[in-house]
Amino acid sequence: MPPSRSDPAKRTWGGTTLDERRTVRRATFIAAALELIGEHGSSAVTVRSLCRRTGLTDRYFYESFDSREELLRALYRQTAEEAHTRMAEAVAATEPDNPEEFARAALETFVQLVVDDPRKGRLLTVEPLADSAYGDVAMETASAFSKLLSSRLPRAGSGTRRAVAVIALTGSLAALLSSWLQGNLTITRDELVNQATEFVVQTFQTAALNAEPEPARKRRAPSSPER
For 40-61, what is the mean pLDDT? Predict the structure, then answer.
């Protein structure tokens, strides 16, 4: 059955529907934003620069996004989800009781991502600290990485201690990777992964040592038989 005339989004023009063309234009703006961030940082991402880079008008920009801030947040979420998916797949194949294998798999996967595409590394670790446009999106997505790390921390003991350990570990790794990507930490890629892996393992070991055993359950006295 042909699409209804009252539904212009489903009509085809040049072999594509309006919805399909909108999807392509949205993806084009996001790709252009990543290019600009890689070249000059988030400050270079404006509606004007995006339209100039894509050859599209601002009418099409506002068709997809309410503001540059919304675009930057969408780009950040998309990139963070890609990194998280890759890391989760990598650590899924590691031994449950081997924190070194787990940490190395996660870190090597992330480092590979940012080496293959430094723009994504800059976006994930540097730009949220330099541009308030990202709002709380970095904190929101960081919780997913924190859950990935906490999945291998010792289960026993205080939930508060576990939360503190995970937050401290996530923040420290982000700062380490950011420093390396900006050239402030002049070590090789292998040295970075080795040092970061050792740090994660030490954190896990400390968490295990400080874990408080769960309180023993009191044994119930046997009930006296009924007479």
Answer: 95
